[in-house]
Amino acid sequence: MTIDYQEEITYISKKIRELRKERKLTVQELAYRCDMERSNMSRIEAGRTNLTVKTMCIICNALNVNLRDIIR
């Protein structure tokens, strides 16, 4: 079995964007909750950065979801 990391990054980034919109948050608001720059959050949602587990956990805490919710 081969895992395509770019496909996985794309899935996770879309899921983060979807959850943010469900909570009616702007990119700026989510970035603030995560203590990061808006431009960094934009790159994450666009799938243009390789997320660490730590960053994913910070985003999950800001969205009040489990890590499993963005990777499945």
From TrEMBL:
Keywords: DNA-binding. The keyword DNA-binding applies. One of its GO terms (molecular function) is DNA-binding transcription factor activity. SUPFAM superfamilies: lambda repressor-like DNA-binding domains (SSF47413). It holds the Pfam family HTH_3. Residues 16-70 form the HTH cro/C1-type domain. The keyword DNA-binding applies. GO terms for cellular component: cytosol. PANTHER family: HTH-TYPE TRANSCRIPTIONAL REGULATOR, METHYLPHOSPHONATE SYNTHASE. This is Helix-turn-helix domain-containing protein.
